Amino acid sequence: MSTLHKNLVLIFFVLVLAIAPLITRGGAEFGGADGQAEKVITEISPNYEPWFNSLWEPPSGEIESLLFAVQAAAGSGFVCYYLGYMKGKKKRQEGN
Amino acid sequence: MIYRNKVALVMLYILGVFLILPQNAYAMHIMEGFLPLNWAGFWLSLVVPFWFMGIRSIQRTVKSAPNLKMLLGLAGAFAFVLSALKIPSVTGSCSHPTGVGLGAILFGPSAMSVLGGIVLLFQAILLAHGGLSTLGANTFSMAVVGPFAAYAIYKAAKKLGAPLQLAVFLAAALGDLLTYATTALQLALAFPAQYGGILVSLTKFMGVFAVTQIPLAISEGLLTVIVFNLLTAYNKHELQELSILSQEVR
Hints:
In chain A, 70% of the residues lie in helices and 0% in strands. Chain A has three helices and no strands. Chain A has helices at residues 3-24, 35-44, 61-95. Chain A is elongated, with a radius of gyration of 22 Å. Chain A starts with a helix and ends with a helix. Chain B has helices spanning 2-20, 37-64, 69-82, 100-107, 109-126, 135-159, 164-190, 197-234, 236-241, and strands at 87-88, 94-95. A two-stranded antiparallel ribbon of chain B has the order 1-2. In chain B, β1 and β2 form a beta hairpin. The two termini of chain B are 20 Å apart. Classes of the chains: A mainly alpha, B mainly alpha.
């Protein structure tokens, strides 16, 4: 099996793992926030007050998802540039 | 072919188990201000030596093999991407993988303490995700426990004769899972239950953090293997230099 085929099979599994919960738990909130842990904390020690607040918070959900998208895009941009560069380099070496 | 079918069967089984798990939980790093000051300081002081070790380790790598700089960048970029991807989990909430296992296998765990710390700092400042006051604790779980566990598991699996792909998968997946188990432990230590103490709290936080993370840990393992397959195909030379592949051609 070539690298491409192997990776396609693996990517398929990753997608299944990500999509299956959306189908089987259709009614769930899928809150990304770390709110549940926060709830457990207030349950255990009701008097706890966070003593420090974020210096800056994204003003809206849209801005936050923009910044997350930028993070992912910058990272995958580099990953793909590198892999493509190495593939081209290898091809050239084999050509010589 | 038979081997492949078996692998597929095991995966389907694991998937099936998670689909029936009834639980509602969220998971991610510890939020800003949510660790008492003394605990925040404790974890930070534990992490500082790893940052020093990591910086020295990176300096050594860059000096002895400047051609590996780009690959080091890849390890950092991979962690950057994966920790930006919040993926739904079977518990009905979202969490994200960490991506530090890849770099730990390639460059050793302490290098990832630095790169993982940078990712956490970025998210704490720009995304209000995690936090500056909890940076030490979050670095300890994601950039110390995660990579060191991944590295140890990778070495142990190789020693036991596991194929490269399996060793990489186990290292990345279990490193990811142990990261969030550590987060649960950190919260349990800081917030012991009034009745039952740390253990009761630990069970609660494990329910929140670890269970959600299981399918994501599997995803992280698979994604790391994907990148490793590509590296094996195109970067044989660099992997040999890092003694991941032995010198003879397989």
